[in-house]
Design a protein that fits this description.
It is a single chain. The chain is mostly beta strands and 183 residues long. Helices cover 0% and strands 37% of the residues. The protein is rod-shaped.
Length: 183
């Protein structure tokens, strides 16, 4: 998500919660609470959805980080919870726990978009001995600290000015960690 996520409880507010800022891609966690013997939906059953503390779960006018408790539908035992995150993550485990039973699913929140890079941190030694190799590293991240992977050579331009010889060619992209290096 490119907008900041925040927890809220607007159940007692005079107007409905406005989640229009949270239009970025989300995951939807859905399921049906069923009786283990009969397979009949458990209407109104309490279900706790939990996952990584960076995941914002939202159901109706309630949203919270890390976990949320909702009630299954009064008509068929189904439930649905939206999940958002500003942290890129792959196969993050989310657990649904109704009535003491539990099941898990995995959600993925994609990498930061190339256009979201806001921080470029350079790391280099303060000096180098004659005839030695010094390595300069740079890391590009978005405002939430996620690595920004740049694959289009037109998006990055690295130049070197100074004494010494550049080993290899200058980088034109960042790796999956948002990093590049020059020796």
């Amino acid at each position: 998500a490119t907008t900041v996520t925040s927890a809220s409880d607007t159940r007692n507010a005079e107007t409905a919660a406005d989640f229009s800022a949270e239009t970025d891609p989300m995951a939807t966690i859905t399921g049906t609470v069923k009786d283990g013997f009969t397979g009949v939906g458990q209407n109104g059953a309490s279900v706790t959805i939990s996952g990584d503390s960076s995941i914002l779960f939202r159901a109706g006018t309630l949203s919270s980080f890390g976990s949320i408790t909702v009630f299954a539908s009064a008509s068929d035992g189904t439930f649905s919870v939206a999940a958002y995150s500003n942290k890129a993550q792959i196969n993050s485990v989310v657990t649904a726990t109704p009535s003491g039973a539990s099941t898990t699913t995995k959600v993925t929140f994609g990498d930061a978009a190339v256009t979201t890079g806001t921080s470029l941190v350079l790391t280099a030694p303060t000096s180098a001995l004659p005839s030695s190799t010094m390595t300069l590293k740079a890391k590009l991240t978005d405002k939430f600290g996620n690595a920004v992977t740049v694959t289009d050579t037109a998006d990055i331009k690295v130049t070197y000015v100074g004494p010494g010889i550049v080993f290899g060619s200058l980088p034109q992209v960042t790796d999956i960690n948002g990093e590049l290096s020059v020796a």
